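Action item from last meeting closed. Structure (328 res):
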């Protein structure tokens, strides 16, 4: 039986105000529209997986408010397994978002229930995590909780894809033991302490212990670098997690690294595009594609999503992704 992808992370209601341009500090602008729409990096990644018809379960929390109910219903309707999601006292996570005409955005995340996802709750769901084919993590729940999930996965040999967003110092060496590390440009610069060329950046992240890196560069594409396992490049896809940190590469000799260009589209809303990429990348790896093929597939899904509004609402189905790829 196919092991599910398990997403441990945030579930938010996005409060999206559309404007011509994002206001500068101290400036007031008139908006052109407003909507509440389901989001949260974790939930977005889970919905991307579900849209592709791959089994996926969510581990996280929502509040006892109206948003909590709506968020849960939306996930279930998308095909995400939600039985492990707890409803807790207080508000759900929300994300006020300013969305400019050119598709760019700025986001404030207010954690609410996501901030209550603690290690005790994770331990309650330990069997679900141990039974995953892959676990997807982001950084919108407490850091020690993510570190605990990494520990469980390392012990059980479950590969983890860590999306280090929003950029937050990574406490816990275990977090560098991820099978895949997927920062965007700002996040990569945050973790490196400066802007670096993709090749140098990827090499540094691999040196820190991750087994594969995807540097997400929006309209430019993605730079995908992976340690090449003895059996061949594709096998890193569902790589077993070693209990110790892998050897630090001192050159790019045993590393395959290539750009995967983005598809050219007219963006209207880029919120959740990175999450869409991660969900699709995980599915494609689980289905046995090599990382560069998987990134091309993920990039197609993300390209479609930016031409539509909403984080989860914009995510296409597998048939749409395949049609898109067939025409390019
Ligand atoms: O990555 C996009 C997501 O970031 C939004 O849906 C918002 O909820 C924040 O978590």
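Sequence:
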């Amino acid at each position: 039986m196919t092991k599910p992808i398990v997403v441990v992370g945030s579930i938010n209601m996005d409060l999206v105000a559309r404007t011509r341009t994002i206001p500068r500090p101290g400036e007031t602008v008139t908006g052109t529209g407003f909507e509440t729409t389901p989001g949260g990096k974790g939930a977005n990644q889970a919905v991307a997986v579900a849209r592709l018809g791959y089994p996926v379960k969510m581990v996280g929390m929502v509040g006892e408010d109206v948003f909590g109910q709506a968020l849960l219903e939306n996930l279930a309707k998308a095909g995400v397994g939600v039985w492990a999601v707890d409803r807790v006292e207080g508000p759900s996570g929300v994300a006020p978002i300013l969305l400019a005409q050119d598709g760019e955005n700025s986001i404030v995340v207010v954690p609410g229930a996501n901030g209550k996802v603690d290690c005790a709750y994770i331990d309650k769901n330990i069997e679900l995590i141990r039974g995953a084919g892959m676990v997807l993590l982001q950084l919108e729940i407490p850091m020690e909780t993510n570190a605990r999930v990494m520990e469980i996965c390392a012990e059980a040999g479950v590969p983890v894809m860590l999306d280090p967003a929003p950029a937050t110092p990574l406490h816990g060496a275990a977090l560098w033991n991820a099978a895949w590390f997927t920062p965007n440009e700002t996040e990569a610069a945050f973790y490196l302490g400066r802007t670096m060329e993709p090749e140098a950046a990827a090499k540094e992240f691999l040196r820190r212990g991750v087994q594969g890196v995807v540097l997400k560069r929006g309209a430019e594409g993605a730079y995908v670098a992976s340690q090449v396992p003895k059996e061949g490049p594709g096998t890193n896809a569902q790589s077993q997690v070693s209990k110790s940190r892998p050897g630090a590469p001192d050159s790019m000799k045993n590393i395959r690294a290539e750009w995967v260009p983005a598809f050219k589209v007219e963006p209207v809303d880029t919120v959740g595009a990175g999450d869409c990429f991660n969900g699709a990348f995980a599915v494609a790896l689980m289905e046995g594609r090599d990382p560069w093929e998987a990134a091309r597939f993920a990039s197609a899904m993300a390209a479609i999503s930016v031409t539509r509004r909403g984080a989860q609402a914009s995510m296409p189905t597998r048939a749409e992704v395949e049609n898109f790829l067939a025409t390019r």
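Note appended to the action item: The chain has one domain: 5-11+39-92+112-326.
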